[in-house]
Amino acid sequence: MRGFRFALHFVAAAVAVASAGANAQGYPTKPIRVIVPFGAGGPADIYARYLGQQMQKPLGQQFVVENRPGAGSIIGTDIAAKSAPDGYTLLLMSNTHAINESLIPKKPFQLMRDFVPVAPVNYSDLVLVVHPSVPAKNVVDLIKLAKSTKGGLSYASSGNGTPYHLAGELFKSMAKVDILHVPHKGSGEARTSAMSGQVDMMFDAITTMTTNVRAGRVRALGTTGLKRSKVLPDVPTVSESGVKGYESPIWLGVMAPAGTPKDIVEKLNAEISKVTQSATTTAMYDKQGALGLVMTTAEFTKYLNDDIAKWERVVRVSGARQDR
Question: CA-CA distance, 256 to 292, in Å (whole number)?
Fold first, then answer.
């Protein structure tokens, strides 16, 4: 009887393994939806579409990008969290999500509980820009101007909890200036406000703002990495410009609803990594000032947990709040 039970367990385990393998073998058999919880035209939207185009041929299915912006990524992310965990709904996320774990603790989801990490996409610095009418030629000038201006200066972001928001709050805290946060529905709207002079300044992704810097629509004062950017080599970092140690990047990644079969997650990780490491992608990233990230699912999980802890400290020290 004991041997019979053992045989039954063995057969059940074998069937489970075979079934798991069959998941990845047959996957995908229909289009894959990629939810981008940010507005059109920003880095997440651009790279989600690029990634989908590159993965369409090897996987034999379309990747349909669905922009669902709002509430600092909460709306679209909640939709993804409530989707079936079958590999046919993915979330294109950013460090906004790591930030929101501490900035907005009362959310309808928890990132590391309701999602499984799939793969990172890329990493890039932000660039601090001001409208040409702002009489500041460098970061030191900007700090002096902010301190001497009644009511302070204003800065645009794509919403509460986004990297653009926290970059401003970190600058505010470290430079000891009072600047007013003006949240927008998306980075495109925030960018337009900065270029039109409706706000004084903005921290924006180098990958999307560099063209406007070169065209003279805004003036770049500093980049947010610890090293100068290859695409804006004449622009000093904020750290070397007087706010020593300042660093505030933006990165993107892919997650899936918790419960998505592990073999499907690993298959997606492998395909995304191939795209990220390709010569075509590397050349594109070099031109735009981005750095491709390649990690195993375990490495990406650690990366996410570390980033959540990092931004928890920034939120606490800066005093950043969800409502401002």
Answer: 20
Buried b (16+ CB within 10 A) or exposed e, 302-315: ebbeebbeebbebb
pLDDT of residue 323: 61
Q: What is the pLDDT of residue 324?
A: 58
Q: Which two tokens mark 136? A: 């500041």
pTM, entire model: 0.84
Lowest mean pLDDT among 8-12, 95-99, 296-300: 8-12
* Backbone angle region of 151, left / alpha / beta, with phi > 0 → left and psi within -120 to 50 → alpha: left
CA distance 63 to 67: 13
* 3-state SS class at 322: coil
Q: What domains are defined for the chain?
A: 2-123+250-318 (3.40.190.150), 126-223 (3.40.190.10)
The residues, ordered by sequence, that sit 6+ positions from 116 with a Cβ below 8 Å of its Cβ are: 255, 256, 257, 258, 259, 260, 265, 297
Residue matched to tokens 């000038």:
141
